[in-house]
Amino acid sequence: MTAMTTAPLDEEETRTWKAYACAARRLFAQIDRDMQRDAGLPTSYWELLRHLAEAPGRAMRMSALADATQSAPSRLTHAVSQLECSGLVQRRQCTSDRRVCYAALTEKGAEAVTAAGDAATQSLRSHFLGTLSPADLARLRGLSEAILAHLNTACEAPAGRRPR
Amino acid sequence: MTAMTTAPLDEEETRTWKAYACAARRLFAQIDRDMQRDAGLPTSYWELLRHLAEAPGRAMRMSALADATQSAPSRLTHAVSQLECSGLVQRRQCTSDRRVCYAALTEKGAEAVTAAGDAATQSLRSHFLGTLSPADLARLRGLSEAILAHLNTACEAPAGRRPR
DNA sequence: CATGGATAGTTCAGCGGTCAAATACTGGGG
DNA sequence: CCCCAGTATTTGACCGCTGAACTATCCATG
User: Fold this and answer.
1) The overall pTM is greater than 0.70
2) Strand D bases contacted by the protein (CB, 7 Å)
């Protein structure tokens, strides 16, 4: 809105964006590779399982899981189906409302969660947490939170209302 | 290597990682959405076209383009095929070495590059560059470069040699 | 000049993700 | 009691990407 919207980026801005984007992309890629190699699980699936592991009864409604992980329902369906095929999760129908469906962690799934957790910890430490000083990490966290805050206000305020 | 490899992450570390990861993911997603909406082109394809636009003769060898964009050859093949279908790019065979193939920007492609550039500029300013002070941006850039540097040393040094 | 290794690019199968449409079920108002 | 709007999940088609074969071509060597 500040009218400078389409002035081309200067050198400084370009480099800042490139550095940020490149670092984040490569960091994610590296961690994903590590997770896949050491735990046989992509980071995103591990996050699903982590939520289940922390839920009471190690089970959650599909929609609750979708909420918790900020993902579209259809993604959940696909992901849970695949995790079910791998034996890490089991679907259970709700008796009182037959529309709803629970995803429950299996024993094998619980083991996978902890294994993946170790892999993630290790990867995170060696590629991220261990590479910056505590002060730098704190700064980075502050900056990330600022970005997030702006994204949130930008998404919630101006559009009137979100088409949930 | 520092023996603290598998100690679970503490609260602080977890939050830092989550903030960073979440901010970056959402930022990328937002910018991709904007690009798709305003220029009908995903960010990644725009980057390919940008390289072509800046190359002498608006054309590059496939392998050079792959190098420049840090992407696997097969990705290039697919992407260029699709861009060719959309009429933004044209393949040209090299006469001296029939193995090699050039990707050349078409007129339509050149227009798309500038349009996408405007869209990217606008999105970047409103979601990233415009949301942080110049000082913060400089800090963020420094931190990103530090992360990148560590990723590079980690990838090049210890494995002996990369199986190119 | 034939041959075998290196190089450039493509093909194929599969993964994780999105969106739009379909399905299955519930609960409240005529 | 029936019907219909709303809700929960699934389905299916497609997208961009990856890694592992495969094809075609080149070139150094014997």
Assistant:
1) yes
2) 6-12, 15-21, 24-27
